[in-house]
Write a sequence for this structure.
């Protein structure tokens, strides 16, 4: 029998302490009031323009991510565990990336298989021997956390390349404060609106040496990118320029931005473009999104790229299983947050077990993202399982598998009223002079009953995440 999901508000019928004040308020709210606030939230999101595009959607229409007006609430102690755990993890992952592009001591020690580095398509040989300013590779990370019990938090995935979603965290809070100011009067909710200031401070800290007043820009692929709203939003909130590749040029290994007042030197680029498209002279020759000569300027130490080129080696799903060992190897500490048990299908025993239990497991492509290309065994048909089996047999090394987790649930406002829906959490970790994490992060919620898929591209929504300060 499958384990029942942990109800974060009332697991045994009794209201848990973090939710008690909210529950007392909620009991006095007529259903029509909540429905009206829900409609107001939708209207505000549409007015602000918080939409996203879905790759592969030929209609070209942008969608509104469903927003739930019932917050997810974490106690101060619960957040301390999550916060300490994700900061520890990012510190170790940064050390791993530095090691991979230098001595590869962890490989020499037999802690990570050599093939997972040398044969990994995310390994960038161009980064070998190069150390970015301050030794920071992972300036911004999004670590996906799942909860399965009272004190049980686990890491599902690390996002280190161009992690997205922080704009929804910030706007969710803004909308909630507009709609429910009385709730913030009676709850001591930790603020999140300082994130853009913290981000730009960290980026300036990571500027090349001897730059006194660094210029920071956000580099976007353009308005047709699914996360363009976030790129524009963050640039505006940080008070920096939003640029595309054609707005920049390189001269004498220095990056400049075209402005109406003439060229202006750029010192830090918060890039939301994948490695392959950054510089057509080094990576994809057909890229129209990047800047010719950018990588040479980067290697010469004349500009900082955040995140660093080659960080994908550390958030590849094949590497994920080794992160606890990285924490022990580099930090000499035990992991605060556990990994989800993972099967590697290039291992004979793992592959045999997974093929015998496909109907019970979640199988993912090693390089996949966004909820695409995965098999959720318990929800799949016989035909889907059979087809996926053939994909695995064709190239087993391209897949991992994990048990179907009983993701925790939170009360959610749906058409039928208030009902539990499965959630995960993406805290956003910033690496600068210190490693910090904004208190809360993005809670994603599977809006469909019984669904475990929280990705917005697959119909998931978002919630405001409250961390109580007392």
């Amino acid at each position: 029998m499958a384990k029942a999901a942990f109800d974060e508000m009332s697991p045994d019928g009794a209201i848990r302490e973090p939710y008690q004040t909210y529950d007392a308020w909620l009991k006095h709210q007529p259903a029509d009031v909540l429905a009206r606030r829900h409609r107001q939230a939708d209207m505000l999101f549409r007015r602000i323009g918080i939409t996203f595009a879905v790759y592969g959607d030929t209609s070209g229409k942008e969608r509104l991510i469903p927003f739930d007006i019932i917050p997810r609430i974490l106690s101060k102690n619960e957040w301390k565990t999550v916060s300490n755990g994700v900061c520890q993890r990012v510190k170790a992952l940064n050390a791993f990336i530095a090691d991979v592009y230098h001595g590869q001591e962890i490989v020499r020690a037999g802690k990570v298989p050599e093939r997972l580095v040398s044969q990994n398509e995310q390994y960038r040989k161009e980064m070998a021997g190069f150390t970015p300013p301050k030794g920071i590779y992972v300036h911004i990370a999004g670590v996906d956390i799942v909860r399965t019990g009272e004190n049980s938090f686990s890491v599902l995935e690390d996002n280190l390349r161009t992690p997205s979603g922080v704009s929804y965290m910030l706007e969710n809070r803004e909308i909630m404060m507009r709609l429910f100011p009385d709730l913030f009067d009676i709850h001591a909710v930790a603020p999140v609106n300082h994130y853009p200031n913290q981000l730009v401070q960290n980026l300036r800290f990571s500027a090349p040496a001897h730059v006194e007043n660094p210029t920071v820009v956000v580099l976007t692929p353009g308005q047709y990118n699914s996360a363009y709203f976030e790129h524009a939003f963050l640039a505006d909130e940080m008070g920096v320029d939003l640029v595309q590749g054609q707005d920049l040029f390189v001269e004498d290994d220095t990056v400049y931005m075209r402005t109406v007042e003439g060229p202006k030197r750029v010192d830090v680029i918060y890039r939301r473009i994948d490695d392959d498209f950054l510089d057509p002279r080094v990576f994809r020759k057909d890229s129209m999104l990047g800047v010719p000569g950018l990588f040479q300027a980067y290697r010469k130490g004349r500009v900082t790229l955040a995140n660093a080129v080659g960080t994908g080696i550390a958030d590849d799903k094949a590497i994920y299983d080794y992160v606890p060992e990285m924490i022990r190897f580099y930090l000499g500490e035990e992991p605060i947050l556990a990994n989800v048990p993972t099967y590697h299908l290039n291992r004979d025993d793992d592959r045999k077990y997974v093929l015998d239990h496909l109907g019970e497991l979640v199988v993912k492509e090693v390089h996949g993202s966004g909820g695409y290309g995965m098999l959720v065994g318990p929800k799949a048909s016989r035909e889907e399982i059979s087809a996926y089996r053939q994909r695995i047999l064709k190239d087993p090394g391209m897949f991992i598998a994990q048990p179907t987790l009983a993701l925790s649930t939170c009360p959610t406002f749906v058409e039928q009223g208030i009902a539990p829906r499965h959630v995960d959490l993406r805290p956003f970790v910033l690496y600068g002079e210190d490693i910090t994490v904004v208190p809360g992060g993005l809670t994603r919620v599977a809006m469909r009953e019984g669904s475990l898929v929280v990705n917005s591209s697959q119909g998931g929504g978002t919630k405001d995440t409250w961390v109580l300060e007392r």
Notes: Confidence is low (pLDDT under 50) at residues 54-58. The chain has 14 helices and 23 strands.
